[in-house]
Amino acid sequence: MKYILLLLLPFFIGSCTETIQLQPGNYQMTCGYKESVYKAMKKTDRGSVGCNVACDHEIYHRSFLALNKDKTFVLAIEDVLMHGNYELVKNKVKLKDRDGSELILEIKEQQPDCIQLLGVFDEISSRAISANERLYFNFTLDSTQSVETDSKFTYEVNTWRIAPMDSESDAEIKKRLLNNLDYVCAYVQHVLNSGVYHGYKMDGIPTPLRYLENGIVLREWDNVPQSWKDIFYDESDAYRAYEMMYETFKNTEANRYKRSGLLVVFYYLKDLRNALSDKQ
Predict the structure, then answer these.
(1) What is the pTM of this model?
(2) The organism sits in which domain of life (predicted)?
(3) Which CATH number belongs to the domain containing residue 58 in this structure?
(4) Is the domain of 127 the same as that of 167?
(5) What is the pLDDT of residues 12-21, one digit of tens each?
(6) Which of 277, 173, 191 has the alpha carbon at shortest distance from 232?
């Protein structure tokens, strides 16, 4: 019996130290909890905080974790944007940003198509996420195949998330605005690629635009979502960006498309982006 136990001991030690396998892919955030809320809900009903639970909030619709096959990653949660290299160590995902900062996410639950991660953003500067607060996030593996060069999960179309440190010049505001429009186009393109047009969340896009069956319109300034204004340094910079869009709408002749629905919205978004880019 003692001999058998000695044989089994290395097996148990190896099992305890084995690294969890995590499939590379684009993981869309579906829910998030502060630890106090998470524990209270779990105490009442464990199933209410499983990794397969989805919550309806605009922040989740535009937040994601992309884990690429070459061990690079992109993490986007509101104004948090990290990209660099990642590694799996036991039950943790270690993210190392190119600027040197690190974020360790503990895998609390894993199913074939979803994961739940626990993180503390103590090295990450953010206006939206409190430092040193333990936060739980649910992510679902997105199976949609990306056909465009820069999908909504790439770093290149998400740099608008990086908060400006000071009031920006017109050129800097325009660059930020164009990048946001690139993200909007990629977001809509992703919905088109998915082939599922019902139930998608357009409020996942911070934008002053409204989407109609046959095109897009610019909202009145008083009706522009705060989430879009927050992209800029302050309300004054946001209004300057709004004026750029207003002038582009006013001075650009719209193309006519024999289409309707989300596809024509995508066409007009691309037209708006290109017209704004060409505007001196």
Answers:
(1) 0.89
(2) Bacteria
(3) 2.40.128
(4) no
(5) 334 445 778 8
(6) 173
